[in-house]
Design a protein that fits this description.
The chain has 79 residues and is mainly alpha-helical. The protein contains three helices and two strands.
Length: 79
């Protein structure tokens, strides 16, 4: 079974109080995501990031790029 891919879309500009302008993750969150093994937990993490984006503001290109990344891996995008 393929795991949910990382929400990172390779923009990696930390300008919003330590949060990436694209995926809204901080560097510690990126490290944490890599250590998550269970797919249910990975999906929940991505859903938490989507909620975080609602508060912090969205990068308009994130969702289409992440959905494409999920399709390429054969995974249904969370959220």
């Amino acid at each position: 079974m393929t795991k949910t891919p990382s929400p990172c879309i390779d923009v990696c500009k930390y300008r919003r109080k330590g949060h990436c302008i694209a995926c809204s993750m901080t560097k510690p969150q990126k490290k944490l995501f890599k250590s998550i093994k269970k797919d249910d937990h990975r999906r929940a993490f991505v859903e938490m990031l989507v909620a975080q984006m609602e508060v912090m503001g969205k990068y308009s290109h994130w969702r289409p790029r992440y959905e494409r990344k999920c399709r390429k891996k054969g995974v249904k995008p969370p959220a």
